[in-house]
Amino acid sequence: MINTQGSQYERLALPPEAPLAMPRHKVNEARQKAKKLVKPFLFRTLLARLCVLTITLGLTWYGATEMYAVLNTNAIAGLQWAFLVLFCINFTWISFAFSQAIIGFLCRLWPFSRKVKEVDVDGVTAILLPVYNEDPARIRASIEAMHEDLLEKAPGKFAFFILSDSNRSEACIKEKHTFYPLLNHDDQACPIYYRRRDNNNERKAGNIADWVTRFGANYESMIVLDADSLMSAECLISLSRRMAAEPGLGLIQTLPTIIKANTLYSRIQQFANQCFGPVYASGLAAWHGTASNFWGHNAIIRTKAFAEACGLPILEGKAPFGGHIMSHDFMEAAMLRRAGWGVRFDMDLEASYEEAPPSLIDVMVRDRRWCQGNLQHKAFLFAKGFHFATRIHLFSGIFSYLSAVFWFLLIAVGFALAVQAHFVRPEYFSNPSLFPTWPVFDFQKARLLFELSMALVLAPKVFGWISAMIYPRRCMAFGGPILLTLDTLLEVIMSALYAPILMFSQFLVVFDVLKGRDSGWKPQSRDDGATPWKTVARAHLSHTLLGAGLAGAALFLSPELFYWSLPITIGLVFSIPLSWLSGGEKRGNLLSKIMLLRSSEEKHPKGIVKRLNDRQNHIVKDDDYDKQPPLSRFISDVGFYHWYVAQLPNEEENTLCRNRICAEWQIEQSDSIPQLYEHLKESECLAILKHKSLMLAMGKYLPQS
Asked: Between these two residues, 665 and 602, which has the higher pLDDT value?
């Protein structure tokens, strides 16, 4: 546990400021000359890119010609042309994913691993932890675990910054009360600082930019984490040493491993991440080279490069397509590359962790925000100065949601063709001829094409299973060959059931964004995702009706069509119970008890994960305390009150603020905190937290000695 000795009243939450300019850039700008980078694997990158292109185009051409032959070798009309075009679009997408997976699989089999240069680091690396209305107890446990690890292995080399954008008074008070005992102990070799913005403009991107412009000049690099991130000291040290060894690099992204999954859906994601993820990630790293991407967390960034290149433009128009950029991470990587800085994906670094959304509904909520952010990137797709790999990243992000639209349209057109074939009499003599034009549909080719499509979709999972099976140590981490195989089969089955639900959900999300609705900014759920049946039924009623309608229509048209459509309809029909099962710790941990979908970190946690578990086990939750008015924390903890007042700046006299005036009057008229809360508005409570004079007036409620 962190030492809390010393004067808590005098300890400040922040170090002296060291401003760093961060100019805002335009959408279209000239590309800067690339910085000097060590490129011993340039040939490998070019070869990987050529393989991705060749495999994708080759499979697409084969699929297109085969589907053309399936539909009609004599003449294709109307709906058949639409079906062919939609099939080609979707087949290209799965071919692109397959090409990356096959390259990643071959890289995993390659016996010679590359050596990445590392050098000693001068100065201190900042660790940034953005927070937005999160549970501070969980974050404190992670900070304490990493802090203890760094004190042992790299004293004097790192400093934590908790960067709060919380805008609810209850969350603000709770996180300050949770964090203040940890902050800025000068006698420690790894200080922890805290800052909350009163105005959270530009969301997380603005949160990071605010830190850069206020404190960035004192730190060569910054490691950006998420509220659920965890990294070992060894990983943090390697990141800073690798960044120091490559002066031309602007960013190094790690591959986060999902841990602490305790629901069905999060366990499925955790297994897929740990078993299949490294194969796909190896393929990405192979063709990305030094033009990789950024996922917003668990990465190190050169601070001056970020300040120089990543002042995000404000898009013309209103949300959802205009205004501040939501998916800032893709664009920050893109702008670093445009400014000449290298962006690299180092997936060999271990002990970089994150957590997964607990339920299907939580994924759907997150998808709404991500979809809007990714669709915003259309403004940059053909903008001036971006690297071609950057354009592929942006297009992939956009199409990851548009693909749901194209899959849905393909299904709709397929059913329309079936209806046409059932009700419309074929025209045998549509063209002047002595001989009839017979309708042709090659069922044998159709079946083979369907099998090929399924093979391409399942191939990354098979590659992941093989790459785990052939390495005994990795295989045993999954519980041995039998449990590994059972887990793989269970993941494939459950993912197949959830896939059509997510497809239709993303289709609706895209439609919602195109209608012009802004998603806003909601905090990510990090509880166990247990959802009442009523809420689940309301969320998935449309999925159920669609599935039942498709199944009924298919059965009416043809028994064969009914069986062919089962992979789509069965998940939709049972979307309500499937979604309910996806969340809930009790339901999810039943799998662990029967040894299924149980991660190695759950059985034999590594050092940093064990530290986190120990810290979380020491968290004592006082439900009665949480039921009290938030401002009561200042009265029940006098040390916290005096520390908080010491952090507030002195105010200018005669400043007019309606919420401040109303809050001041209510403090004067109230004899207790509960009485104050009877009429206190949220905006007025936030005004009390902001103004030093109001907090001093709150001193009347302190217990008299």
From this structure: 665
What was the pLDDT predicted at 548? 95
For the chain, how big is the Rg over CA atoms in Å?
A: 28
Are 193 and 131 a contacting pair, CB within 8 Å?
no
Do the Cβ atoms of 132 and 523 come closer than 8 Å?
yes
For residue 702, give the H/E element and its range.
none
310: CB partners within 8 A, 6+ apart: 22, 25, 209, 331, 332, 335, 336
Contact yes or no for 361/529 (Cβ under 8 A): yes
Asked whether the bond before 320 is cis by omega within 30 degrees of 0, the reply is yes
Q: Which residues pair with 315 in a beta bridge?
A: 323
Q: In this structure, is residue 688 part of a structural domain?
A: yes
Nearest of 156, 347, 334, 343 to residue 246 by alpha carbon: 343
pLDDT, tens only, 225-250: 999 999 999 999 999 999 999 999 99
Residue 332 belongs to some domain of the structure: no
Kindly report, residue by residue over 31-83, the tens digit of the pLDDT: 998 877 656 567 889 999 999 999 999 999 999 998 888 886 555 667 888 89
Residues composing the chain: 705
Question: Which residues have C-beta within 8 Å of that of residue 421, sequence separation ≥ 6?
Answer: none
Distance, CA of 554 to CA of 138 (rounded, Å): 49
Q: Concatenate the DSSP letters of all residues of 435-504 into one string.
A: S-------HHHHHHHHHHHHHHHHHHHHHHHHHHHTSHHHHHHTTSHHHHHHHHHHHHHHHHHHHHHHHH
Q: What is the domain range of residue 676? A: 648-699
Task: Give the span between the Cα atoms of 291 and 86, in whole angstroms.
Answer: 30
Fill in the amino acid letter for 413: V
User: 652 lies in a domain?
Assistant: yes
Q: Which amino acid is at 677?
A: Y
* Both tokens assigned to 554: 């298919």
Please state the domain count of the chain: 1
| Amino acid present at 235 | C
Give how far Cα 59 sits from Cα of 26, 55, 355, 460, 703, Å.
38, 6, 35, 16, 76
Distance of CA 644 to the CA centre of its chain: 33
Q: Is residue 659 part of a domain?
A: yes
